[in-house]
Amino acid sequence: MKHKLFLFVLLTTATFSFAQKKDKREGNYSIQLISAESPKDIQHGTVDSLSSTYEDAIIKINWQYAVSQIGFDLTNKSEKTIKLIWDEAAYISIENVTERIFHKGIKYIDRENSQTPSSIYKNSTLSDLISPTSYTRFVSGQYGGWVSSPLIPTMSAGMFSKKVEYKPELLGKTVRVVLPLKMEEKTLEYVFVFKTIFLEKNQTTVRQ
């Protein structure tokens, strides 16, 4: 009986240890622009996936992933003022869920409220950050406060580790950002499509 109990404990411990062993790598998850859906009456633009940049006759936009946010620099190439309509903008997650977004300058507590459109004057650039409203929440307690979940749902390998848990199943997924731009009385809806990638530190390898 003791022998069987010892064998059971040994197998259980081995299984638990194996389950705890994870692939941890130095690097970061990110996103890469792969395509863009522009309004029908706008001549098809070009996408540079290497720099995550889109450009057409009206706008040029460069995207940067920031874990729980996505940053962008949007240049108005036209001779007319463009307004970014925040209340109609959206983030579509890996799970294909449409999320309302808020941007830089909006207080966390006000993130679900209506947001004033941002004006982008001719030949000027708007630099901003967007984040899904549902990804930010308030945590109570002594060490609580406002916290934001990463757009790609992964965790670091530990508090003092520079590595992250590498999950191949998270790569090659699609996320989208919808930006409605209003020019005079016309609304131009752009949909930017990204895929998830992994950038290994000190290497040129991009996992996707």
> Could you say which overall geometry the principal axes of the C-alpha atoms support?
globular
Helix-strand makeup class: mainly beta
Helix content estimate: under 10%
Number of helices: 1
Radius of gyration: 22 Å
Mean pLDDT: 86
Content of β-strand: over 45%
Low-confidence runs of at least 5 consecutive residues: 4-19
Give the terminus-to-terminus CA distance: 51 Å
Spell the H/E element sequence. HEEEEEEEEEEEEEEEE
Query: What's the domain count?
Result: 1
Total DSSP E strands: 16
| Major sheet characteristics | 14 strands, antiparallel
Keywords: Signal
Protein name: DUF4390 domain-containing protein
Describe the model.
By secondary structure, the chain is mainly beta. It has one domain. Helix content is 9%, strand content 47%. It is built from 1 helix and 16 strands. It has one helix spanning 2-20, and strands spanning 24-37, 46-48, 53-55, 59-66, 69-76, 82-84, 90-92, 98-103, 118-120, 125-132, 136-139, 145-148, 163-165, 174-183, 186-200, 206-207. The strands form 2 sheets. Strands 1, 2, 3, 4, 5, 6, 7, 8, 9, 10, 13, 14, 15 and 16 form a 14-stranded antiparallel beta sheet that branches. The chain has a two-stranded antiparallel sheet with strand order 11-12. The chain is globular, with a radius of gyration of 22 Å. The model is unreliable at 4-19 (pLDDT under 50).
